Amino acid sequence: MSATLLSVENLTMRFGGLTAIDDLSVSVPAGKITAIIGPNGAGKTTFFNCLTGFYKPTVGSVRLAHPKKGEMRLETMTGHRVARDAQVVRTFQNIRLFPKMTVLENLIVAQHNFLQEASRFSIAGIFRLSGYRKAESEALKTAAHWLERLGLTDIADVAAGDLPYGTQRRIEIARALCVDPVLLCLDEPAAGLNPRESAELNTLLLSLCREEGIAILLIEHDMSVVMNVSDHICVLNYGRKIAEGTPEEIRNDPQVIKAYLGEDDEETASGEKAA
Amino acid sequence: MSAVIIARHARTPAERFKDAAWVAFVALLLGIPMVGLTTVDEGGALTVQTRFGMLAIFVGVSFAGRFIFRWIMDQVRGRRAAKSAVAKADRTPLAIRVIGWAVLGASVALPIMFSENRYVIDTATTVLIYVMLGWGLNVVVGLAGLLDLGYVAFYAVGAYTYALLFSHFGWTFWEALPVAGAMAATFGILLGYPILRLRGDYLAIVTLGFGEIIRVILVNWTELSNGPNGIGSIPRPTLFGLPFERNPAEGTQSFATFFGLDFSGMHRIIFLYYLILVLALLTNVFVSRLRKLPVGRAWEALREDEIACKAMGMNVTNVKLSAFAIGAMLGGFAGVFFAARQGFISPESFTFTESATILAIVVLGGMGSQLGVVLAALVLVLLPELGRNFSEYRMLMFGTAMVLIMVWKPSGLLASREPTIRLNKAAATGGEA
């Protein structure tokens, strides 16, 4: 068991009377792929929003053991600081690219803080001083690296919004990688992908984790992805954790089967309706 | 022409020689009448004499000059290419570049062609004020995507800052210009703070209100702004301290006396025209540069998706405030020029109609397009002017034109967006290997 990168303790998120997450405790190991699964409305995306500073949890703590900066309390940080300082970067369930900007520009924008600092309040940038030029070519190298890695080099200068859905998913991952994450949170990266594309996604996720040492937290419905890449799976239902373990354990867990397929008559009826 | 085209590959000495020979040939053709022939006054009659020695020197210098110039340029370019492995985007479509340069050439040449026609130059100056305002508002609306219906407020802040600094402290145009810009930027941030969370329609309503508040304050705070009576006798800008006056004060010089010219009222008009041309061009260069910097890309990213910006670790507050501040500052500069040109300002010049016109220029031109703003400003200022002869149908014409443009070009006259950076594929893959 490797060291814990992120530990979530007693996390609760209430919206008025609705409790979206109820006393959830999860730990995410460093350098591994952890999947969060659960039926629709289980609170998975809310959980992500709490981790990445988009929501402020009602109760609970989110601690990140940053490899360089020591322990950080994510629940106290605002949205952009989680990505900038803690380097916990996320993607979105409904892709959020900068559609009119080119793929390359998307990846350069992701390195905004690095470049903005080099541009010294834009003064060094306006006069194109060597410090800024160096930073810019460095940013371009990072972008070119990830473009190459995700097979996007040929479309680098195309507006991101004009590209097919599956490609946009990859661009969003490439963009998140340009932020230099220690923890990459992917919200349904395989949604809308065809089987070949999701197989490629599996390879990519495994190589990111094994070769680059980036820990990945994954929300996914596509079981071919979840079961093949995850080291650890956590199952949510109605905001509670109902099971946790390796893919093998989860597959055979009666609680999970019950949550997904329903058990008693009433549940079965509503499950069928939903299907 | 082929000789002067800039080749992308490294030039051989033979190519350089040929290039220089071409230039020398052109110099020879031009030089025969201009240098080779001269008229001499011989006893009251003009006779033509040849100066072939001079012509030979002229052609020789052209040849050598071109050769050396080309060589230096190649060196510089080679070094620059070697320095960065990745190429920058400087490949605006040819048509746009040609139009851009043509418009620039025409605007520089305009006062020479119409040096006696005050009406033409005055109208052109007005167009340029709107161009500058359009470029300023383009930062807020076109790039950052924040709909601002009260842009005229910053224009007013700039104009009044100059007028007040002059009437209380006797500041000149050039002294007041940076202060007024800073003042307008401060107001931009003041407006920006309370509306950070607003978007779309709600943002538009608050900015609209802000524009009106500034105007109403100017009307009612009589002690400060002299109310609806406005502030008059604001001094015109000077050229490095040389005023444009018929009778300069004792012991000083005016533009006309300094250059030994006869006084003409047109000097000042033409000077004002060139001044706003320079201010507008500086604005353009400034904004185009900013667009290719992190802050400019952040503005565009903000327009595209604010939540994604946050997820990328971008401080959205700073990005928004910088857009408001820079846009306001440019509006403030234009306001100072406006006050100096009119010599008199009152709140009546800063009504909502002005904001609407500037916004219309940005939208009609194509959001974010610099050249589009110029074309739209031409259309929006010249159409009412052309319509003067049938004044009662003027607004009707204006409205029809706007509707037609929006039908034909729903996203503005020039809607295409140029990437701020491009990937040089060969260099990128080569660099990775």
UniProtKB/TrEMBL annotation, chain A:
UniProt xrefs under PANTHER family: CONSERVED COMPONENT OF ABC TRANSPORTER FOR NATURAL AMINO ACIDS-RELATED, HIGH-AFFINITY BRANCHED-CHAIN AMINO ACID TRANSPORT ATP-BINDING PROTEIN LIVG
Domain of life: Bacteria
Domain ABC transporter, first and last residues per copy: 6-263
Protein name stated in the entry: ATP-binding cassette domain-containing protein
InterPro entries linked: AAA+_ATPase, ABC_AA/LPS_Transport, ABC_transporter-like_ATP-bd, BCA_ABC_TP_C, P-loop_NTPase
Keywords, sorted A to Z: Amino-acid transport, ATP-binding, Cell membrane, Membrane, Nucleotide-binding, Transport
GO molecular function: ATP binding
Phylogenetic classification of the source organism: Bacteria, Pseudomonadati, Pseudomonadota, Betaproteobacteria, Rhodocyclales
One Pfam match: BCA_ABC_TP_C
Entry similarity comment: Belongs to the ABC transporter superfamily.
UniProtKB/TrEMBL annotation, chain B:
Cited CDD domains: TM_PBP1_LivM_like (cd06581)
Pfam annotation, one family: DUF3382
Chief location category: membrane
UniProt entry tagged with the keyword Ion transport: no
High-affinity branched-chain amino acid transport system permease LivHM N-terminal domain ranges (all copies): 16-108
Topology of the protein relative to the lipid bilayer: Multi-pass membrane protein
Compartments where found: Cell membrane
InterPro entries in the record: ABC_transp_permease, LivHM_N, LivM-like
Highest taxon, organism lineage: Bacteria
UniProt entry keywords in alphabetical sequence: Cell membrane, Membrane, Transmembrane, Transmembrane helix
Bilayer-crossing regions: 20-40, 52-73, 94-115, 127-147, 152-171, 177-196, 203-221, 269-287, 321-340, 360-383, 395-415
Protein known as: High-affinity branched-chain amino acid ABC transporter permease LivM
Designated gene of the protein: livM
